[in-house]
Amino acid sequence: MSWLSTFIRPKINAFGNNTKDVPDNLWEKCPSCDGMLFHRDLKAAQYVCYHCDHHLRIDVIERLENLFDDGQFKEHAVRNVPIDPLKFKDKKKYADRLNDAQKKRGRKDAIVVAEGKIKGQSCMIAAFDFKFMGGSMGAGVGEGIVLAAEKAVKGNMPLMVIPSSGGARMQEAAISLMQMPRTTVAVEMVKDAGLPYIVLLTDPTTGGVSASFAMLGDIQIAEPGATIGFAGKRVIQETIREELPDGFQTAEYLLEHGVVDMVVARKDQPEKIGSIIDMLMNTNATPKGKGKKSTLKHDNDDATSVPLPDVARGGNQARLKAAAK
Ligand SMILES: [Zn+2]
Predict the structure, then answer these.
(1) Contact in structure between 85 and 184 (CB atoms under 8 Å)
(2) Same structural domain, 269 and 132
(3) Alpha carbon 317 to chain centroid distance?
């Protein structure tokens, strides 16, 4: 070793040491245009690329802060559900996987139930946390949607669900599939109370989530470029052995084909959603609490009268009816 490495190098290292504190994630690359995005500017732009308008995924809490007036909202704690009743294990125990996600994300499951005002209009929101096991829907997430529906009915306010999910949580097998009818019954109760049910589809909304409550909104809003579908493009292509069109399963494609009502940029969402709620709540002019009858027309009004097996119902109806009183 020469003096170069024993004397000069430590000096140089010490000199450059203050760069150590600089985090290495100051810049992010846009997945659409490859443009470099400075983290502070990206945050200020609500995680929308300022080169090409591509909507990147946004943290659930930041999304809620951007939606609600002054970033203020009240979070409601989701009731506990039995943990891992099937004792499922793949490479890792499901209970451990869940525990890790809970520690990392600081919440019980992949859903946040929040109440606040959007442009002065009260609204109950159930929003998915995609960073929590890919926003997958198990009993805990189902419970969150039921809770949000109950609170919306009780508080006489609209319910908005914001899915961002890969679908059913496979570790909960049939229990996760049961959340499909369960959440469907929950949102039907909101509709029965004459309250608006809005869905804001974000990237991605797929699987069992898109096959249940996520497609049942009175108003279906989607975020630009969001992937929305049931099975993935490749799976469909291999099954039907046909080439699928460009933009298949994007928000814009679904708008063109009548599956969603509008595609709204993130920065315009509070304004748009606020005015929709204002419009729907005002047409619903029955005095509060007096035999509220829906003025919204639902094609599937009869669906709720079809008795569901107890296990699928999960006690929703009785609880929601009690909450509606
Ligand atoms: Zn871009």
Answers:
(1) no
(2) yes
(3) 23
Range of the domain at 32: 24-56
Rounded to the nearest angstrom, the distance between the alpha carbon of 149 and the centre of ligand 1 is 36
* 47/69 same-domain check: no
Could you report the per-residue pLDDT of 226-272, keeping only the tens digit for each? 999 999 888 999 999 999 998 999 999 999 999 999 999 999 999 99
| Ligand 1 centroid, distance to 142 Cα (angstroms) | 34
Helix (H) or strand (E) holding 65: helix 60-67
Last residue of a domain, one of 36, 56, 76: 56
At 2 the three-state DSSP class reads coil
> Is residue 46 located within the same domain as residue 72?
no
Alpha-carbon gap, residue 1 to 131, rounded angstroms? 49
What are 271-298's pLDDT values in tens digits?
A: 999 999 999 998 545 554 444 444 555 5
- Domain assignment present for residue 10? The answer is no
Output b/e per residue, 54-85; b: 16+ Cβ within 10 A.
bbbbbebbebbbebbeeeebeebebeebeebe
User: pLDDT, tens digit, for every residue of 103-149?
Assistant: 999 999 999 999 999 999 999 999 999 999 999 999 999 999 999 99
The answer on pLDDT for 324 being more than 50 is yes
pTM over 0.85: no
Cα of 110 vs centre of ligand 1, distance in Å, is 28
Contact 262, 272 (CB under 8 A): yes
Q: Domain count of the chain? A: 2
